[in-house]
Amino acid sequence: MSRYTSITPADLDAMLETIGVPSIEALFERQIPEGVRLRRPLELPDGRPEQDVFAHLRELARKNVSAEDELSFLGAGMYDHYVPALIDMLMERSEFLTPYTPYQPEISQGGLQVMFEYQTAISELTALGVANASVYEGPSAVAAAGYLAKLHNGGRRFVVSAGLHPHSIETLRTQAHGYGMEVVEVPLREGVTDPDAWAAAIDGECSAAIFAQPNFYGAVEDAAALSGAAKDAGDPVVIAQVDPITLGILAPPGECGVDVAVGEGQPLGNRLDFGGPSFGFFAAREEYLRRMPGRIAGETTDVDGRRGFVLTLQTREQHIRREKATSNICTAQALNALGGVVYLTWLGRRGIVELGELLLARTHYARETLCALEGVEPLHTQPVIREFALRLDADVAEVKRRCAAQGVNPGVDLERITGREEDRGGLLVAITEQRSRADIDRLAEVLGAAVGAGERRSAGEPAVVA
Amino acid sequence: MSSTTTSELPLQRERARTIFEKGAPGRRAFVCPERDVPQVSGEALPERFRRRDPPRLPEVSEPEIVRHYVGLSKRNFDLDSGFYPLGSCTMKHNPRLHERVAALPGHARLHPLQDPERAQGALELMWNLQQALAEISGLPHVSLQPSAGSHGELAGVLLTRAYHEARGEHRHKVLAPDTSHGTNPATVTMAGLEVVKVATNPDGGVDLDDLRAKADADVACLMLTNPNTLGLFDPNIEEIAQIVHGVGATLYYDGANLNAVMGLSRPGDMGFDIVHFNLHKSFTQPHGGGGPGSGPIAVSDRIAPFLPRPLVARKDDGVFDLDFGRAGSESKSIGRLRGFQGNYGCFVRSYAYICSLGGDGLRDASEAAVLNANYLLARLQEQDIGEYLPLAYGELCLHEFVLSGGPMKKQLGIKTLDLAKRLLDFGFHPPTVYFPLLVEEALMVEPTETETRETLDAFAAAIAEILREAADEGPEIAQNAPYTTPVRRLDEVGAAKNPVIRQAF
């Protein structure tokens, strides 16, 4: 008997008799050709009792240096925000954790209503009319938005700001190559999308114009100007990848001329989990509703007139439309989206503004404090909210090693992520509400010593690109 | 069960109110940490970039949030509460050990851009999982990146495309049986290729003549599920592989049904070049009401150069690293499919599962899944059931089987949908209905290995009772079901006609 099964020898005898076969092996012999049977045991370690498996997984966890173990300023897409305890409790409830996608709405009203509330929250946050029930995560959400634009207007190219997260650009390229769409990158100027190059790159054949807000380097873009310029130069779908935690204080995409807003939902009540699972959010102007990917919950009534919720507009989806579907997505990130809507509810209407103001103030304090250090200067001087880019007059990898020895992780080595030569010496520093003024002062102390201790950066070997 | 009563049950009396309709101005749960730094000047964030009106999020206290969402949870059916034989979804038990280990801070609070030398445990875990999936599939190279099965399929089709392009060939057709999952054709279109349907033969397998007729030099790949969505293992799989490889195309394995054959038969040995796994099916990542999932892929040597990056690598000194494949050598990789390294939290759970079961345990799990399916099939083919719900194809099955509700509809006047809705009153989640499309009034049943014989018997008894009820008391009972659920049948047509997809204020 295997773990988690319950077939006793007596069960087995009775079941085989009912089926009318002499053995389990006979079930396979009669159905699987001998030529493709595996006639040896799988070469895997033997099964182990629960406590041994726990010990093994705990041992592996101990080999990681997590945000629990060091003072971390890592960001670049995922952030160490505080996850309130009630989210753990709700996400672990069997009723949310263990059902499948709600194909039977009568017994899935809880999950469907959560989706409906989540869609409302995302729609409010982005100031866009409609939102779906989640997509996988941030970068693939950008690619999904690009596919919507392709279906919408059949244009020939995507114009993307170099301020978009490098993973988003790469994911978009991977998928765009499949359906033959060109991807053109517009450079930054002084930390934000170069407005002249942006306008010049967009024409009548541009399917989508895509930027990030704030951008990958932490800079707040002039979103309204970028959207306006895009619409003046052509008729692309304007897509923004937005950081949801900034939207308490930052003008929302829907008020900046953006057509589709997508992004990484992890900052909203989801754990870091070494990169996933989290959720991607996807919101759009109402005119794009029937081209949206993924599940959408809608309100309706039952035969007795009670309010209820169902998966709706399913004629967009793969299980109905097959090759004509607007997307192939099936399983998305429902449980993580639950974490997202509970987090937004927990923050509430005032909290999301207060948290945004706190991040803004601490981030500015951190930028000023760090830029006062010898050998540290800002990579750009644009407004920032929760993340900013520095240029160190030292080898970043070496600086990071010195800081690590002091229990501090000062941020992300920019060149390792972007592969851009102009990012050499770049450090991306993220601030969350879990990093206090004292923590920032500690970072300044350790970073200052680490930059000052080393040789000045030379134009030698390029860093290893990641 | 006095099922046709119209008096409301407690859960039905509760009118659904969203969190946006609760609370009151000024209520809150969040207490903001102290602002311990100087106030910023207005220039820090110029007025024109600022939001004028805050988003209308709820204003509620923590106790209200807990009541609300716990209340909603009670309006959900779930696997921990009862039998969930949803075909092709592999609703097997979700061990709680997995939640405990995934929540360890060393896993849960690990940042995805932590330096590899400081994330050795995570990389080791991913490496071990890759090795295990390679062994289970019989295909040596694994990428854990895709986020779900359909994402793995997209990876697979893009890999196929890249493979042919590297050989200077531009093949634009992908073959898929008419029984295939909807994600297969949808994926093909997204990858810019064209899907061509292959017919099913009278035994439920691929029609070899039709396959031969359609397999030509324009075909990039054949996408197949084996066992297929009828729960049948294609006995001609070796010949199918020969035909497909014979025209230079690749063979793609949709791993949704892998739970039938772990340790018993391997896609790689069947001739497949690319396979995706659903960690949220065979490897018991909880489904979460619609995700998260995880859809790693395993591929043969000839496809390996095109895999998405980064891959986990183990260096000679035993240190683990992420291989981005860019340093110097010209990469053939199709590129990224998403951010970071994939759904690591799912890897932790599925790896724990593989550690718990071991190689023999995985084989035992598949054997038990197939035993349970055949037992339930036999029970449902007994007198009083089988005549109304005959098996659509074959005599035995692997991990799932498909019944036809055609005779039931003709003789008793109730459709598969009615049977499904009536099952809700008996406390069971219904099987998958109306799929695959080629079976009239299809019911696709997958019990999984983790159910007891008593549960399977109870389910068979419920089906028998519903059919008896329809025969003796008339079809209306099932036609108007369910009666005991928080809401009864819902107007889906109206919902789609006038979509209301957010709370109005």
Strand content of chain B: 5-15%
The second-level CATH architecture of the largest domain in chain A is 3-Layer(aba) Sandwich
Helix percentage range of chain B: 25-40%
Domain count of chain A = 3
Which blocks of ≥5 consecutive residues of chain B have pLDDT under 50? Answer: none
Mean pLDDT of chain A: 95
**Number of DSSP strands of chain A?**
17
Q: Structural class of chain A, please?
A: alpha/beta
N-C termini distance of chain A: 46 Å
CATH fold-level label of the largest domain in chain A:
Aspartate Aminotransferase, domain 2
Radius of gyration of chain B using CA atoms only:
26 Å
CATH topology of the largest domain in chain B: Aspartate Aminotransferase, domain 2
Q: Strand arrangement, largest sheet of chain A?
A: 2-10-9-8-7-3-4
Features of the shown structure:
heterodimer, A: 466 residues, alpha/beta, Aspartate Aminotransferase, domain 1, Aspartate Aminotransferase, domain 2, 3 domains, seven-stranded mixed β-sheet, 15 helices, 39% helix, globular, disordered C terminus, B: 505 residues, 2 domains, three-stranded antiparallel β-sheet, 12 strands, 35% helix, 10% strand
